[in-house]
Amino acid sequence: AIWDIFYYVFLKLLIGWPESLMTWDILFMIPTTWVGPVITPVLVSFTMILLAMILVYYNRKFEIVKINRIELALLIIGSIILVLSWTRDYSGFILEHFTFREIWTVPGEKLYEVASQYIPRKFYWGLFWIGEAIILTAIGLLSWRHLKRQ
Questions:
Q1: Given CB 3.0 to 4.6 Å as the disulfide criterion, which of 27, 60, 75, 133 pairs with 34?
Q2: pLDDT tens per residue, range 73-121
Q3: Is the pTM of this model over 0.90?
Q4: Contact 123, 92 (CB under 8 A)
Q5: Is 117 helix (H, G, I), strand (E, B) or coil?
Q6: Sequence-ordered alpha helix ranges (H) in the chain
Q7: Torsion sign across C-alpha atoms 89, 37, 138, 5
Q8: Spatial separation of the C-alpha atoms in residues 74 and 71, rounded to whole Å
Q9: In sequence order, what are the residues at sequence separation of 6 or more whose Cβ sits closer than 8 angstroms to the Cβ of residue 48?
C-alpha cells in the first residue's frame, strides 16, 4: 500500500504525471483492464494501511488477532465491488462490440483491435464508495470487537 502511494509520488516528481489525482490510470490488465482515477488506488492504499495498523496494534496488545467470518466476508465483498468499479467501464465497452460468448472465441487480433480503441468514459464512483464503505465497516467491526476486549 505504501509502495502504491509512493509510485504515484515518484511518477509526479520524475515525469510530471499524473496531472492530478483525477487523471485516469490503467491499474491492471489481468484478467481484464482495470481503469480509474489515480485517487482511487491511493484511497484504497490508505484503507489497507489503516487495516494493517489496526492489526499490528491489536496483535501486539492481545498476541493474536483473528478476523471473524463476518469481517472477512465484508472485506471480500467490498474488494469485489472495488474491482467492479475499476472494470465496469472497460467491460461495457468490450460488450458493445462482442457478446460475452464471442469474447472467448473471437480471434485475438480482432479483440486487440477493438480493445486498443478503448478510452475510459466513466468511472463508477457509486460502486467505489460502496466497496470502500463495506471495507471500512469490516475494519470498524474488527476494531470495535477488540476495543471491547480491553
A1: 27
A2: 999 999 999 999 999 999 999 999 999 999 999 999 999 999 999 999 9
A3: yes
A4: no
A5: coil
A6: 2-15, 39-62, 69-97, 100-103, 108-115, 125-147
A7: positive
A8: 5
A9: 1
